[in-house]
Specification:
single chain; alpha/beta; six-stranded mixed sheet; flat
Length: 367
């Protein structure tokens, strides 16, 4: 299961957001730095209304959504790459996740201490990214020194990896994350062995006050973050109110919806954040639907039908024969598999078929 790490400066709302995303009270949330030391871990279901449309067609009571793992990581401070605060521990925990959600404080509140004394989200982003880049720079330089010795010994592949890391070092020296280095797919695979922090896909969560959620687009801090991350980091930003989300945890779905409506918003920011993280990880969903259950299966973008079948069981991939497939939108429009088949929308696909997000599939296999 792929993991997304929630990071940020101390007291920006990381633990509160983690509790909301995982619908638990596992993470301590307090008004002082480093109230999170050991990372909290939670399994999160991916909100997908398509499941319930398929449930209606399949006439089943069982719905199983896709899941990802979220990790609440201790707050980082300036100097973390040199061991300040919980720096070394923090960096180790980041290396263990597949993607990063960086929480940025976008609200003023005299009662909530800011580690830097003032609210400045762009500065906060730069503090964290600088520490990550400095840690990466040190890792790359040490790795290149070792590779230079391996090249002299004639080690196979050392020269290729060294040339790739040389490109990455230029990017890091320019104050840019490793992810922005122009690399071919083969070079990206080579660079992956360095486990660089800034090579991980990242999304930014703008944490706003309850009263600002409905008008977040006008929030100057949110606008600053969106402009900065798009132009400097080629990343996206979503808006959440960690405090609101924490309150929704204790409400029934109908009560939560009414609460959000009173605030002038239609959907919890957490739902959008979870979906954005799912796609940030390069994940896609296909469905199986029958009387027994409707289920979302997780695959990577670009996976072929046999690979998708392997998500259910390795025997399905090994003995793959064909896949019966219909697009979600076509099935919903037709109202049944039989109607989709009559209209020629129910297809037979072979081993080379690249599964599309939302495909509803039935696999034929032989082992």
């Amino acid at each position: 299961m792929l993991r997304a790490g929630i990071v940020g400066l101390p007291n920006v709302g990381k633990s509160t957001l983690f509790n909301a995303v995982t619908r638990t009270r596992k993470a301590e949330a307090a008004n002082y730095p480093f109230c999170t030391i050991d990372p909290n871990v939670g399994i999160v279901t991916v909100p997908d209304p398509r499941l319930y449309e398929l449930q209606r067609i399949a006439k089943t009571n069982v719905v199983i959504p896709a899941v990802i793992e979220f990790v609440d990581i201790a707050g980082l401070v300036k100097g973390a790459s040199q061991g300040e605060g919980l720096g070394n521990t923090f960096l180790t925990h980041i290396r263990e996740v597949d993607a990063i959600i960086q929480v940025v404080r976008c609200f003023e509140d005299e009662d909530v201490h800011h580690v830097s004394g003032t609210v400045d989200p762009v500065r906060d982003i730069e503090v964290i990214n600088t520490e990550l880049m400095l840690a990466d720079l040190e890792s790359v330089r040490k790795r290149r020194e070792r590779l230079a010795r391996d090249i002299k010994k004639g080690e196979k592949g050392a020269a290729v990896e060294e040339s790739v890391l040389a490109k990455v070092e230029v990017t890091l020296d320019a104050g840019k994350p490793a992810l922005l280095t122009a690399l071919t797919p083969d070079e990206q695979a080579s660079a992956a062995s360095a486990f660089l922090l800034t090579s991980k896909p990242t999304i930014f969560a703008c944490n706003v006050k309850e009263s600002d959620l409905a008008t977040a687009d006008a929030n100057p801090y949110v606008r600053q973050v969106r402009t900065y991350v798009q132009t400097h980091l080629a990343c996206d930003a979503v808006v959440i109110s960690a405090q609101i989300e924490s309150e929704l945890v204790d409400l029934e779905p109908d009560e939560a919806q009414a609460f959000l409506k009173d605030l002038g918003v239609e959907e919890s920011g957490v739902g959008a954040l979870i979906r954005a993280t799912f796609h940030l990880l390069g994940l896609r969903t296909y469905f199986t639907a029958g009387e027994k259950e409707v289920r979302a299966w997780t695959i990577h973008a670009g996976d072929t039908a046999p690979k998708a079948a392997g998500a259910i069981h390795t025997d399905f991939e090994r003995g793959f024969i064909k896949a019966e497939t219909v697009a979600y939108a076509d099935l919903i429009r037709c109202g049944s598999v039989a109607a989709a088949r009559e209209q020629g929308l129910y297809r037979m696909e072979g081993k080379d078929y690249v599964v599309a997000d939302g495909d509803v599939m039935l696999f034929k296999f032989n082992v």
